[in-house]
Structures are given as structure tokens and as C-alpha cells.
Amino acid sequence: MALRAPPRLLVLLLRGPGGLCRGLASEGPQEPLPVIRVPRPLQLRREVGVRSRPPPRAAVQRPGPLLIAARRPEFSQPARLTLGRWERTPLASRGWKHRRSRGDHFSIERTHRRAPALPASAGTEVEAEHEQEAGAGFAALGLQPRVLEALQQAAPALVWPTWVQLQAVPPLLRGCHLLCAAETGSGKTLSYVLPLLQRLLSRPRLVASLPAPRALVLVPSRELAEQVRAVAGPLGRALELHVREIGGGRGMGSVQRQLSLDPPADMLVATPGALWKALKQRLLSLEQLCFVVLDEADTLLDESFLELVEYILAKSPVAEHRSELEDPFNPRAQLVLVGATFPEGVGKLLSKVTDLGSLTTITSPRLHCLMPHVRQRFLRLKGSEKVTELIQTLKQHGEGEPGSSGAVLVFCNTSSTVNWLGYILDDHKVQHLRLQGQMPASMRAGIFQAFQSGTRDVLLCTDIASRGLDSTRVDLVINYDFPPTLQDYIHRAGRVGRVGSQLPGSVLSFVTHRWDVELVQKIELAARRRRSLPGIKTCVKEPLPPIELTG
Fold this sequence. Notes:
Blueprint: H1 7-14, H2 17-25, H3 40-52, E1 66-70, E2 77-78, E3 105-108, H4 125-130, H5 136-139, H6 145-154, H7 163-173, E4 177-181, H8 188-201, E5 215-218, H9 222-238, E6 243-246, H10 252-259, E7 267-270, H11 272-280, E8 291-295, H12 297-300, H13 303-315, E9 334-339, H14 346-350, E10 359-363, E11 375-380, H15 386-397, E12 407-411, H16 415-427, E13 433-435, H17 441-444, H18 447-453, E14 458-461, E15 474-479, H19 486-493, E16 506-511, H20 514-529
Parallel strand pairs: 4-9, 4-10, 5-7, 5-8, 6-7, 8-9, 11-16, 12-14, 12-15, 13-14, 15-16
Antiparallel strand pairs: 1-2, 1-3, 3-11
Helix pairs in contact: 1-2, 6-9, 7-8, 8-9, 11-13
């Protein structure tokens, strides 16, 4: 039979050894014992530590310039700090996909005072000592005195070549095929125009039944064609060479008049559509070409132009080997591709017209990188708040003294947004111009030139104005609609801080959608790590694909 303990004894046993002893010593009512969860020595150490510890101080940011300036100071990053590739990065835009992040902002600050494309001697005492010597910097590139004199007459302010010009002009003068990839605003147009004109001086003009230009510059838009002609025209006149320009949207009658002018064109600047129609109607011949340039090649080799460009290159006598360039009886054409990014299929296209082994490649060290001399600000907004923020920004930008602030480019993703936003700016008495691809050619003609001349300080536009167009008077770029790709962001931001601009330039981007936030996070991460933007494919850094031989 099991023994049964008395109830009082059971309670004492459950209280533990200490309780049992105390219960046996006294028979009076027992008080509940305190439950000790932390050992007493550890409690005493804690109390001593709290009494001796100094009160917490507020986190004060160390003085010095910032690379990332965020609304929340804990996400700011000093300019002297560069995060490693595998280091965990606290992004200021990490929570921007949530609607409560509305109103947050951060900026990528300027870390350079001047464009990296300029040589190290520009802007120093060395340049001041040589300003009296015309073309001192360009003379070392191998340009003839006649070309240097023409450069001085056309652009007396140009003294020193940019990094791209230093790298591109000598191989072009030696007759090499060239693939040049460099950041926007680095002076790529002049890097091929100068050697092109010099080589034309040594090539005789042959008699032909059809107009036959000796140099062809292919560009994706009419506005860029006008700009290239504006750069090459004064140089050509000083060298007694004739530069003509044709573009689509004006009718074939205008194209025919330009091609039939006497004397005939030595250098022709054309868009793919207009040139394709002229070749189909036998208005000109490309048999005498000695220079072929694809400017903004990343756009020309896109699906929208690829078929036309393939047809034009098939009609052009591009040299397959370098020896064919100097053949006195049957000279062939030199090929130049210029752009800021290149699609993956460029090697397959070039293999149809020339030997890829004869192609010289020049890649800028700043390719696909954020411009360090341009401030870039990102603002998280609701879609309904963008109009108010835009009008406020434009009015604040225009309140300065005349001439103290530059012009403004406002980018939209669609033509309908440009038109709709233009009506709103009209209601708020904000004078502006509009430029979008659905405009008739008669309306587009001269709009960008009017903007460059200062007729208006605000231009609403689509990405038609983001590729290659020179905008040295632009001080602010506003991405009203965030660009759909990182390539588009590079080209839009490249409208400010260009070589020759006297304004520092800044970019303001409105971030609205979740997919916008994903691109912003990639931009912020690249800025914090000081690396190129991810995901931009280019064949410049990678070996070109091999030529496929078919039996």
C-alpha cells in the first residue's frame, strides 16, 4: 500500500530545500518566497555598470564631403568611403516599394569639379601658358596645319583634346577601323570629324554620273543630323569641303534638292530612312565612299533600324583588310562605330562587311558609370504629386537672375505625356517647347535649335532628345517619368555636365512605380561601390563572337 504524505509537508517539499528548512523551524504562516530569475552577483554587476556608464550621446556625423546624402542621416555615406563588392550595403531606397516611403529622398553628390573626359592639364596653369598657341594640344595628334587652322577658326575656344579624342584620332589617321565606346558628352563627334576631313583632303574627287559623297555619317534622328552638320560644316568650309545633310519627314523632293546641289557633297550626314529611300530611287551612289561612320551605333543597330543599316552597309565599299584602304586603283572605305553602349549582335553584323580582326577598340574607363561631376537627386512621390513638384521646381529654377541658371530638359516616356504636360504648363504660364517623335517633320524642324539658341529655357521631350544631342546650356534634367532602362538613364543624365559646358548641372528624378524603385536601387548600389551600372551588355569589353562560316 502506497504511503500518502500530509498536505502541509507536500507544500513544503515543493518550495524547495530552503522552504523545507524554514517550514520545519517555524510552524507559523509562511510568506511566498520571491522568484529569483537572475543570479544576485550578476544583478550587482549590472547595477554597478549602469551607474558607471556615461549617458548615451547622439550620433553625430563626422565632418567631410558626402557621396550619398540621404534624408535619414544614418543612410548617408562619406565621400572617402567606398563599399566593397561583397559588403552589405544599407540602401536609402531599400524600403521605397512601400507606400509609406512617400516623400523620402536621397542624392548622389558631386565628387569631381570637372568632367573626367577632360585631360589632366585642362584648366591648369599649363593651359593658360599655351592658350596663345592655336591647337597646341591637337597638334600632337598628327593633324595637319591646315586642319589645325580650320579648327582654330571654327572653334577658337578648343585648346586641349578630350580623352576620347586623344585615343581615337591617331588610329583613325592611320586608317584603322575603329569601335569607340565612351560616356556621353566626351567629345566623340569631333574625334571622328577631324580625321575624316583630313583624309578627304588627300583623296581625289572622281567624276560620277550620280552624286557620290566620299564620306557618310549615319545618325538615328534628324536633330542629331543637324547637329553633326553644324559641327562639321564650319570646318569643311575652312577646308573647301562641302557638307550636306538629309533627313526623313521632309519629302523626297527636299532630299533630291540637297543631293543635286553643285558642287556635290564631300561629306553626307543622313538618317537611315532618308538614305535608304535615296538609294532605292537611285538619287546617289556610295561607290566612292572612303569613310563610313555609325554615330550612336547602339541605336542604329537596334531592331527599328537594323534592316535599313544592313542594306546601307551592303551598298558601301567597306575595306575588309587595312591594305585595301590605300589601294590607289580601288580604294575602300574606313569604318567607324561610335556610341555609349553597344548591343550584343554588333559582331555578327560587322562580320558581314569587314574582318573583325582589323577592328581597333577604344573603351573609356568611365563607360557605363555615373558621372561624378553631376549631382543626381531621387525623390519618392505618388503619381498625383508629380505635376505639383514639377511646377514648383521649374518656378524655383527660373527665379534666379537672368543668365545665372541654365535651361531645363524634362523627359517623359511617351508623346502623349509630353502633350498633356505641355497643356498644364501653359495653364501655369510656364513658357516651354515640346519635342516628341509623333510630331510632323515641319513642327520638329528647328525646335531643338531654338532651344539651344535660348528662345525658351524649358523643353518637354521624349527620349528622342537623349541620344547624342549637344546641350551645353542645360543646367537641370528632370525625369518626370523615370526611364525604363539604365541605358536610357545614362543618356538622359548625359545631357548635363558635358565638355564645354560652364554649368555644373544636376539631375532630378521622380520615382513612382515599384519597377522604378528597382532601377534606383541598382543606381544607388553602383554609386556606393563606385562601380559601373549592372546589366548593360556590351561587346566592347568582351571578345567578339567568331565568324560563322557556311559551306
